[in-house]
Every structure is written in structure tokens, then in C-alpha cells.
Automatic annotation (TrEMBL):
Binds 1 Mg(2+) ion per subunit. This is 3-methyl-2-oxobutanoate hydroxymethyltransferase. CDD domains: KPHMT-like. Belongs to the PanB family. The gene is panB. Signal peptide: none annotated. It catalyses: (6R)-5,10-methylene-5,6,7,8-tetrahydrofolate + 3-methyl-2-oxobutanoate + H2O = 2-dehydropantoate + (6S)-5,6,7,8-tetrahydrofolate.
Length: 266
């Protein structure tokens, strides 16, 4: 099957079909996403938290994103592949941003890149789009700005903040972004901004009026019972399944009931 493209997603949006997105960072899960009917994979800088065990996404490098994007691309042939531009990869200047975005496509195999920020990065977004690099925006709680926000808190509350978010979204659309992620914003604001745009919006903690939804794969699979922000719903409890399987293996090794002859060679 051919990969879904930005145009596929735009057509889904125009038909009113909700767009589904999950993060994915490795071959094994990318295969499973392939077997599902998820539209889009985000190789998110959340891999800093989920894969590397960091407290924030800030330490993630362009090389990290490329490494994981390559692994995902080998396991999945049909989802749209969107890769995050990590912290520091586009803030110093636009030339560096251009080179790093191109690397995510050339070396990683991503089809598009995602950048955190609004009107301030619109010129860079425009340059990328002009160069043939589709760009997804990311507004609201942008985790790369956690130090500026002073924590992981809902963004866009209050009249001024709401207007600012809408202005940022319109600036990104005007610059040529094909989609925008909204993270942890009040649901009424996410609805307003979705109505103001003519490109799809993807929500995470943004209510159900956005054009689609994204969750971190390990969160929706229930792989970490110690981490449960309000916007996460666990659609499975893999933490329990995995720990049970490990304990079953351990027990059978200790009582020598594994391996049997069925798992042994003559
Ligand atoms: O890195 C990530 O997982 C993300 C999503 C939460 C949108 O940016
Ligand atoms: Na991210």
C-alpha cells in the first residue's frame, strides 16, 4: 500500500472524516500500527520521555528522531509519517532549521515535519513548504517551552491567550502548514480555532471538536500506570499483561517447566 499523504488527510478533513494519529518510535510497534487502520504516525520528540526516560523532550536530537523514524518506516508502509523537529533544531536560525528538516526527510524517510510555535516561525514554515517540506504546526502546550511555561499546564485560557492562539494558527495556515496539533487547550477554544481554519486540526487534550486526535502510543496502550494526565484514555492495560508474562516466564524457569521438549532440539 502507498503511504497516506498530506493530500489524503486534507480530503478526509473536507469530508468530515476524523483523522487518527498515534506516536510510534520503533519497528515492532510500527508493524502493529500497520495492521490497524490508524492514518498517521508521529515520530514525536516525546520519545525523550517514553523511550529515553528523560523528564522533558528537550534533550532529544535530530539524530535521535532520524534513528527512530527509520525504524518506524521499516515496519509500516501505509501510514502518513510525520517527524518532530526537536528542541534546538530550528531555533538558532532558519538555515539550520531548513537543513535539519531536510535531514528528517532524506535520512529518516519522514514525509513531513512538525514544529512547535506560531506567528514567530511562520517565515520558516513558509520557506520549508516552498522547498517541498510539508509542515504540521503545534500550538497550545508546546512541551519544548516547558521552562518558559513553568510546568505542563493548559494554555490559551482567558480572552487574550485565546485570541493569540487563533492568530498563531491563522499565521501557520497562511504560511502553508497542512495541519496543526493543539495540545492541552480548552475545548471551546479548540472548536473555535478549528472552525476558523481550512486545514485539519489534531487534538490532544483539546476536546472532541478538532478534525482528529493524537495520543502517545504507550499511553493509550496503558504501558505506564504511573503516568496518567487527564487527556489520556487507556484503551488497553499492557502494563499488567507484560508484567504477568514476565512473571510467568520467571516462574517456569525457576521450576524448570520451561523449556519443554517442544522448545528444545535433539
Ligand atoms: O511528541 C509528541 O508525542 C507530540 C504529540 C503529543 C502531539 O508532539
Ligand atoms: Na512532540
Amino acid at each position: 500500500a502507498k503511504r497516506k499523504t498530506n493530500r489524503h488527510l486534507q480530503k478526509m478533513y473536507e469530508k468530515g472524516t476524523p483523522i487518527t494519529m498515534v506516536t510510534c518510535y520503533d519497528f515492532t510497534f510500527a508493524r502493529l500500527v500497520e495492521k490497524s487502520d490508524i492514518d498517521t504516525i508521529l515520530i514525536g520528540d516525546s520519545l525523550g520521555n517514553v523511550i529515553q526516560g528523560q523528564d522533558t523532550t528537550l534533550p532529544v536530537t535530530v539524530d535521535d528522531i532520524i534513528y527512530h523514524t527509520r525504524a518506524v518506516a521499516r515496519g509500516n508502509q501505509s501510514a502518513h509519517l510525520l517527524a518532530d523537529m526537536p528542541f534546538g533544531s530550528y531555533q538558532a536560525n532558519d538555515d539550520e532549521g531548513m537543513r535539519n528538516a531536510a535531514r528528517l526527510l532524506k535520512e529518516g524517510g519522514a514525509q513531513a515535519v512538525k514544529l512547535e510555535g506560531g506567528a514567530a516561525i511562520a517565515p520558516l514554515v513558509k520557506r520549508m513548504v516552498t522547498a517541498g517540506i510539508p509542515v504540521c504546526g503545534h500550538l497550545g502546550l508546546t512541551p519544548q517551552s516547558v521552562n518558559q511555561f513553568g510546568g505542563f499546564r493548559v494554555q490559551g485560557r482567558g480572552e487574550d491567550a485565546g485570541e493569540q492562539l487563533i492568530a498563531d494558527a491563522l499565521a501557520l495556515e497562511e504560511a502553508g502548514a497542512y495541519m496543526i496539533v493543539f495540545e492541552m487547550v480548552p475545548k471551546d477554544l479548540a472548536k473555535r480555532v478549528t472552525e476558523a481554519l481550512s486545514i485539519p486540526t489534531i487534538g490532544i487534550g483539546a476536546g472532541n471538536a478538532t478534525s482528529g486526535q493524537v495520543l502517545v502510543l504507550q499511553d493509550l496502550l496503558g504501558m505506564n500506570q504511573d503516568f496518567c494526565p487527564k487527556f489520556v484514555k487507556r484503551f488497553a492495560n499492557l502494563e499488567d499483561s507484560v508484567v504477568k508474562a514476565l512473571d510467568a516466564f520467571g516462574e517456569e524457569v525457576r521450576d524448570r517447566s520451561f523449556p519443554t521438549d517442544a522448545h528444545s532440539f535433539d
